[in-house]
């Protein structure tokens, strides 16, 4: 049999042998380009590496002037090589010099060559360098030659990325892999975090690149693809998926990709060129990713993450239990990067090591964000592309105040943030000193500052923040992070711990507010809802499922034995719902007293004002409750018809608009008339400027996330409430077409030295 001397399989075998030899780094690269040139019957083979300053530096060449190595340089986008790197597309040219992008580098002596084939060296869709072959004759490179060069480039990419710096290192050289990148996205929870990347789903590392037997490898691929398709079909058939819109759409997209013939053909081609099945998946995925990143169609860019997921699933299938992940023991200053994650998954990380969370998706009200807020961890969301760009252990800074993420930051950025962290720490110290000082305005009005909570992790904050109680305990959070319905005893245990931690401070427990965006994965509702925010949720759901409500009420009544129990009903639409709930509560009290349980010393029943219809039944409402609480998040959403989770319209209307403020003022007036205490527990209570406005409207009690108590208290202690009340009333009483009173409030704060 004649031993083949060309072809991609032979080339890969040679490369593997070269990797195993003990060679100096430069020598190894020289030999690699020589092998490629020989194998492809090319006179020239050159390898350029993209440095982190955006310059492509010639690192090794066979055929061009050897003196030009490390001397020849092109910027991204400059010349043919720069064009390939910038566009991540290959160039196959018969007459290179006729191409408009051709840039002549005299030191290389490349004017003698006519035909040119260049491919990007990609990893996870990012350009690391460019690999080129050239010939004197005006020849056309065939598709299989292009494919072979791409395969070789993929191997080079893996070598560069997995080398621990050693073999490519040269003093002063920083590879593009280490290039700083900044993202401007959305801040979901304030605070600054400095630390190191921990990928929530660690990237799979392909260690076996070269196959011994393509035919066997193709069978392995086929089997893996078949089980992948089966598992997707199975998931689609599961009943709970059938009823969940978005989840189903994603799986349908997976199914479409998994049956995509082009994809399978490209995988097989890569295997035929000598790669293992898993390396083929990595290569094809990287090419696809690079192509999709160039697309401007947002829908296609969104689909990129579906494709990534699919490729990862396939790789896991192929590598089975041996799938080596970059599993590291959690660094001390972890910043978790995830496409999306569940609230429970976040709680799996030890709190003391978490410095921040970065999400590609998510919204400010997603569960994981609510939990992160409770834990006081900064969160930045909607950071598109961050998962692919980040590597485990990369240095990273996140700023939840303005939604920026700095990956591999430069020293000056790091310095500036270290300064910001010091400044924040100083402010925190100030707030701590305020902890035991009274929350009273300059003109002597007492304001009750309460905190929102919902999990065990919140409890230490009650003491630390100086809150006067818990104004909103979101009982649904326990249900949302569980994998099955929390048992009655588990519920009771949580409520008891809360009341114990609160000592004599009041706690307002809100009954289950599930439905809408608060989904319990284990609870099957009747079917898909077109508009879940206005659907079967909160009190509507619990009144229809009294068993659920009774269990919770019983747990609450038992936990509060001997103490006052404050219950609050969510999403009430008409007063009759309050009376029905009261009957259920009374029945439970009677039931427990028959069995000699110690009952609460007193049960107070309140309700949330979140649905605008109640605004025209406020007199009846105030008579039906012992206390009221405005859920400004939902009230604003329904009043303005603006979805609270939709980033497209998040900033369109302002909670400080005259319309919304008039509504809030009206609620305060009616509550005063009926002497029914009212508080406000939406996010608006937690920002000093909006909190200042609420106080001016007459709210004497507001409830917010614990981290906001300090800043809000520091604001109100400088506030002359009567003066601002007059100013605000003037604004609201006159004909006012302003979009918002924000500027007017800001001016007031500035003129009166009120810290915001
Ligand atoms: C609100 O709607 O303002 C509120 C406090 O409830 P949640 O945010 O839990 O819906
Ligand atoms: Mg609400």
Report on this model:
With 756 residues, this protein is an alpha/beta fold. The chain has four domains: 162 residues, 2-Layer Sandwich (Beta-Lactamase), CATH 3.30.450.40; 105 residues, Phosphohistidine domain (Glucose Oxidase, domain 1); 116 residues, Enzyme I, Chain A, domain 2 (Orthogonal Bundle); 318 residues, Phosphoenolpyruvate-binding domains (TIM Barrel, Alpha-Beta Barrel). Helices cover 44% and strands 16% of the residues. It is built from 27 helices and 22 strands. The strands form three sheets. An eight-stranded mixed beta sheet has the order 7-14-13-9-10-11-12-8. Strands 21-20-19-18-17-16-15-22 form an eight-stranded parallel beta sheet. Strands 3-2-1-6-5-4 form a six-stranded antiparallel beta sheet. The chain is elongated. The site of magnesium ion has 4 residues, from helix 22.
Brief synopsis:
By secondary structure, the protein is an alpha/beta fold. It is 44% helix and 16% strand. The chain is built from 27 helices and 22 strands.
Task: Please describe the biggest sheet, giving its number of strands, its sense, and whether it closes into a barrel.
Answer: 8 strands, mixed
Distance between the termini: 83 Å
CATH topology of the largest domain: TIM Barrel
Low-pLDDT runs of 5+ residues are 239-246, 323-328
Work out the oligomeric state of the chains in this entry: single chain
CATH class of the largest domain: Alpha Beta
Q: Which CATH-level-2 architecture of the largest domain?
A: Alpha-Beta Barrel
